[in-house]
Structures are given as C-alpha cells and as structure tokens.
Amino acid sequence: GKKLGYTFNHRNLHNVSLGQGQEVVAEQALDLAAKEGHWVILQNIHLVAKWLSCLEKQLEQHSEGSHQDFRVFLSAEPAPCPESHLIPQGILENSIKVTSEAPTGMHANLHKALDNFSQDTLEMCSQEKEFRSILFALCYFHAVVAERRKFGPQGWNRSYPFSTGDLTISVSVLYNYLQASSKVPYDDLRYLVGEIMYGGHITDDWDRRLCKTYLEEFIKPEMLEGELCLAPGFLLPGNMDYNGYHQYIDDALPPESPYLYGLHPNAEIGFLTQRSERLLRTVLELQPRDSSAGQGAVGTREETVQALLEEMLEKLTDEFNMAELMAKVEERTPFAVVALQECERMNVLTAEIRRSLTELELGLK
C-alpha cells in the first residue's frame, strides 16, 4: 500500500480519494485489486472529469478475466443541473446506483437529526436529564430550520446551507458547557447556537431574529418540567433511551402540517401549488406531442393509430373454412396438400392480427 501511495485501510480494501494527480494511483489500485480479488473505493470521481473516460475503459477491460471477488465502489457529489452530469453512460449502466436523498417532512427530518447520535451520546454527560432534553430540542430545532426552506420566502428570506455539522457541533458545545457547570447556561447556549453555529450562515436580519425566537421557545428552563410543547400536541419527551426517542417520534408527532413549524396553514398553499405544477408539467412532458392545429392537421398520435387500425380491420379477410375446402378437394395431390396447409397457417396469422388489433383498440379507448 505504501509503495503505490494509496490508503490501505484493510487487507482487501483500497481507498483512493481522487484529485491532485491521484488518477495513476487509482489505476494501479484497480489493476492490483482485479488480479487479487480486492475491493476498491474511488471517492469524489466528480473531481476528475477528464479521467472518467479512461476509468470507463479500464473497468470494461477488468469486466472479463478478473478475480470473482473484485469490486469497485465509486462516490460522487450530485450534479447541480443535468448539463453538469459528467459520469459516462457506460459506467452508469453497469453500476448499481445508491443515492442519499434529503429527507422531506418533519417526521423524516427529526429521525434523520436524531440518527447523528447514539445511546452512547446520551450517556456521556453527567447531567443526563438536562443533556437529553436539550439534545432532543436541538434535533427538533434543526429539523425545523432545515425543512422551512420548502416554504420559500415564507420560510427563510434567503436559502441557507444548514447541515448536520451545525447540529453535531452544537451538541458538543452543549456537552462541554454542562460538564463545566452545575447550572444550565440557557442564555449562552441560545447565543452560541443561534448567533454562531446556525447564525453564521444567516445574512438577513429578519431571518436571524426568527432563528433566535425559535431557540427562545425551545431552550428555556420550563423544558425540564415536562410541560414544554415543541409544537401543538407534541410535548418535549422526558428522560428516555435512544430507541425510546425514535419510538416517541413515531407515536407522538402530529401529522405533517405548517403548525409543526409555527406557521399558518396558508403558508403551505404556495409550496403545494408549486409542487403540483411541477408534477403536472412532468406528466404533460411524458404525453405524446400534438401536431400543429389547423386545417389539414393530421391529429394526435392516438388518432393516427386509430385510423390505421380501422383501415387494417376493414382490409382483414375472414378465415378460411377448412372443412368446406377439404370437402371440395377430390384428389389430395401434393399441390392440394400444400395449399391446405398454407390456408391453416393463414388462419392462425389472421386470428392473431385480429386479436392484437382488437387489443390495441381497447388500449386506445
């Protein structure tokens, strides 16, 4: 591993982070892994767009004759637009694709926020009750600020890149403060989270005020008394274990609505209208294109097919009556036998044409 220059994480695993001239290292790792049956992880392939065609050819060469345990894993960031897609079609067609989609809705966002921690996280602070309560409130706060973006300007005046890193560093700050003090420094926590961790992204004064107001509602002394509602009908849970918090979300979180974010139901009208228009626009794009209207226009594709279908059905002859034909044959000469066989085959063909045309007509209707 040291000789080739790539990271050797495991006996049969080669991990190569692409960029800064690592293409040669990646090619050497692929050759060795294909021969020995190792696994190769190539990270950030979007950074080496010009080299991807070489990678495609190399993978094609290794697709035959390589060790049966040889595997290649590729990772890339999503392209901002279809025009920026860089990965060759050959690689995409021969790969099993796995994507990480952003969660939608409060339920998915809250579970996703809590997934950044574990039972060990909940047990690491000496002030367990305070730490767990504030950690859950921070998870809810993170889910709110992340999902408010879907409401457009009614959610945030500008779109901010809030990430799970903001949440995890806020929990680290919470842990350090609680370990250093017997009292919960609510004001300090709200300032650090609202003005620095999350507020560092915020450039609009009204958005900063909104973020501050959320924290004033979610992080306050009343949260330890078991009477703080994070949303209408959703109490801040008490001291639970990690799985218990996930189960509480499933059992107690109200159905998705703007109320969960402190918004009026009308705030959802614009979001739902935009989503409906996008859906209908996509459906319309999948429909057959109409020809130009006006005199002499051919009509839609369905009308053209219907006209051809009716014309074929009119031209289609009836099937031969084999019993009547056989009765007319006095001497079964070779020519007569061949003619009768062809009539039987023609009957099979005619029946299949009529059946398929009828089926197509039902499909058009």
UniProtKB/TrEMBL annotation:
Single Gene Ontology BP annotation: microtubule-based movement
Transmembrane regions listed in the UniProt entry: none
Residues in Dynein heavy chain AAA lid domain copies: 131-267
GO CC term, one of those recorded: dynein complex
One example GO MF annotation: minus-end-directed microtubule motor activity
Pfam families documented for this protein: AAA_lid_11, Dynein_C, Dynein_heavy
Domain Dynein heavy chain region D6 P-loop residue range list: 10-99
Residues in Dynein heavy chain C-terminal domain copies: 273-365
PANTHER family found in the cross-reference section: DYNEIN AXONEMAL HEAVY CHAIN 17-RELATED, DYNEIN HEAVY CHAIN 1, AXONEMAL-LIKE PROTEIN
Protein name, UniProt field: DYH9 protein
Organism: Bombycilla garrulus (Bohemian waxwing)
